[in-house]
Specification:
Keywords: Glycoprotein, Hydrolase, Signal
Shape: globular
Protein name: Arylsulfatase A-like enzyme
InterPro entries: Alkaline_phosphatase_core_sf, Sulfatase_CS, Sulfatase_N
Number of strands: 22
Strand order of the largest sheet: 8-5-11-3-14-17-4-18
GO molecular function, one term: hydrolase activity
Radius of gyration: 24 Å
CATH architecture of the largest domain: 3-Layer(aba) Sandwich
Helix content: 25-40%
Family: Belongs to the sulfatase family.
Number of helices: 17
Number of domains: 2
Length: 569
Amino acid sequence: MKSKWSLVLGVALAAVVTLVAGVLVVGPTTTAAESAEQAAPEEAAALAATPDKRPNIVFILMDDFSLELLRTMPEATKMAAEGATYQNSFVIDSLCCPSRAALLTGQTPHHTKVLTNTENDPAHPVGGWSAFQRYGNVEKQFSLGLQEAGYTTGFVGKYINAYEATNGADGKRVPPPKVPGWDSWNALLGGAYGGWGYQSTFLDGNGDVRLRSHPQPPRSASAQEKDAAYATNVTRDYALDFMGKHRDDKNPYFLEIAAYGPHSRLGHHYPGLKTWFPPAFADQAPAGDPTGGNCGRIKCADLSLNDLAGYGDDRSDNVPTYLGRGGRTSQAPAWRTNKISLSDETALSQYRDRARMVQSIDRMITQVREAAGDDTYVVLSSDNGFHLGQHQLNGGKGAPYDSDTRVPMVVVGPDVKPGKREQFVNNIDLAPTFLDIAGASVPRHVSGSSFADSLGRPKVPGGRYAFFEHTYAKSHPGEVDLDKGSGGTIDIIPSYIAVRSAKGLLVRFDLDTSWKGTDYAYELYRYDRPWEDRNVFAEDHAKPYARDLMRRLNRYDGCAPAVCRALTR
């Protein structure tokens, strides 16, 4: 993909192309402005005016989106039919902040050192904005590479957990720090979890971060007035404004649109609107009609718990297994000890509300695609999945199972051949893919691999394994992923590393909850079954497929970026 764009004649495509002794030579990457400076004066003006033919890129990131919701969305379904759909698309960590940090840098959590949603220890943060900033991740965002390659970059929506305004000495709200790598900066702060009543950022004429308030309309306001202030719709408005401003620019743009939906609510809410997953008023079910409202392509009444693969599966055969000397195995203590508090009625109600909640995102996708045009890559994905009663885990995320780690990855754009892709991709692969499409170099610190070549060549060899890692931490103030409304279980999921292939999933849990001790036990699942229904580690751990997974898992533990990349092939 990179060669397509870097070999197109014209310095605006960021490559110097010369003819030496009849041989085409591609020189070092330069920007259009640098080339203009190097050119003769009479050529400089023409070079500076040369339009950059590289494609625009729009990346739409959803929050806690589980894959069964995709079929309810008319535009997303149409997008999947018209573009490349990656059936084996996963996230490196099924938790908001570690996943987003990994996505922005192309690195694993053990490289970013962003392991949880909250900092926990201010002096030695392990998560949130504090850790993202402390450990040099701000300087590793792919957006900086895109800027250096000549792209105008924009960000709209949810950024990193705990990136928030603070209270100043005078009692006024102080904006959060400016984040390099973004020419336009419209981050919606944490109040947007509730849907209404929050603040967002923008850059003033001097490039400084300022705050804009989006007050919750009064209860007496019309549904249209309330929806105009709904977080997804404000995100849409910011996105369309950016695209309108830069549609006719000489240089291409990159825009990330990070919606808050369908994450569960926090904070502000209208009286009487009791759902934990608040849809826009245009999509809500009428009072007293739980099967009403807008669930998109599927009638709300037709959504059932049968759609949730593994729902209510008895967990007694999922207990992890110890591996001793000589290959001897023994049963380890169960970690799934949560009280099963999520009723069928509540699970179905929340499933339908989540379907209603994503319809406003789907309408945003429609408008974004219309504004983008055919010469723009549009990428749709999520920061993690979501379990809602699968494996008797109540509601939430963080587990290594398909419900939590598999996410949509749909791409439309120039020269994308429609159809399904079998290659394994991970959200750490997005950063190198974006850089590749832009004709920019991929830094050595990146742990993921570009899948840009597969956009035009569906059968090109690619990843065959996906890796996951997750760090246990007792919840601290500011944790947004307890999901108490659905009986969340984030607090009981142990630390683990895992690897999956088309044949199976191998997970090494650390049942010791301390930072220093280890107590390793394993779960192994075969994918000739419909989901992770039974741990087969005791009987299968010596079989070739399981031995292959174990070798890769052991090498992945603390791997350097180059090794991490190689292990997926």
